[in-house]
Amino acid sequence: MAILNLNSSVRVTHVSTATAIIELDNLTILTDPYFSPEGSEWIGKSGAKLVNSYQPPLGLEDLPPIDLILLSHEDHKDNLDDLGRQLLNGRNVFTTTDGARNLAPRKAVRGMKPWETVSLQIGGGPRYEITATPCQHLPGGECLGFIVTAEHFGTSDGKPNAVYFSGDTVYIEELAKIKYRFHVSVALFSLGKAMVPKPGGGMLQITMDSKQAVQLMRDIEPDIVIPLHFEGWSLFKEGKSEIEEVVKEEGVEDKFKFLTPGVETKIL
């Protein structure tokens, strides 16, 4: 699982669901902040009852100083709960255009569209580029993934080295475009095979299953994939053991790295 040519230190802590702390040199990123305790319940927009059976190993008081929040969508409690909302005030937040409107009047929240790129510089540090990527999640709602690049990350085969957070999405062919624009050194995939009821009956899959994750991995060719978003919720139909079984069957287990929750892991 060698990381090729990313000229940056990378440390990742998986907190819970799609919540991860990504430390890139002097930039600290938090994804989809969720910190509610085990036993929390909500009724989702689809009508599905969301029950959390997982206790996050870290609380707000355990977090390092956060420079940037990548929020795939603001309207689902398992991606942004009431505790996570406390972190949005006064911080740089990138999210969907609907999300930015709904979170107003926070001036540091920036709404983005798929494939839009914006620049960010914290203090006198290096400049980072944030590119939004498309997602297909719950019908009628907006959702994004994000790619982070910087000049000092370097390049591979003429493409900028990058860190990719998928956001909540099923596999879509459009994501294969990532390979032609970026060399993804580290990818964080939201998995779990989340299923919700359709209004007319039946069930709808709204996040990747393990086979879709393998397909996306083959499409964009990251050096390493860190699975997120597979534990603790009743709507998730695949957990760690199912994911491990499939990636082993597909012969790509060396590409997938599960992290111990709450433990900072040096990736590079």
From TrEMBL:
GO MF term list: hydrolase activity
Residue ranges the record marks as coiled coil: none
Residue ranges occupied by any Metallo-beta-lactamase domain in the UniProt entry: 29-230
UniProt keyword annotation of Ligase present: no
Pfam families in alphabetical order: Lactamase_B_2 (PF12706)
Keywords of the record: Hydrolase
InterPro entries: Metallo-B-lactamas, RibonucZ/Hydroxyglut_hydro, UPF0173_UPF0282_UlaG_hydrolase
Protein name per its UniProtKB record: Metallo-beta-lactamase domain-containing protein
Source species of the chain: Trichoderma harzianum (Hypocrea lixii)
Lineage per the UniProt record: Eukaryota, Fungi, Dikarya, Ascomycota, Pezizomycotina
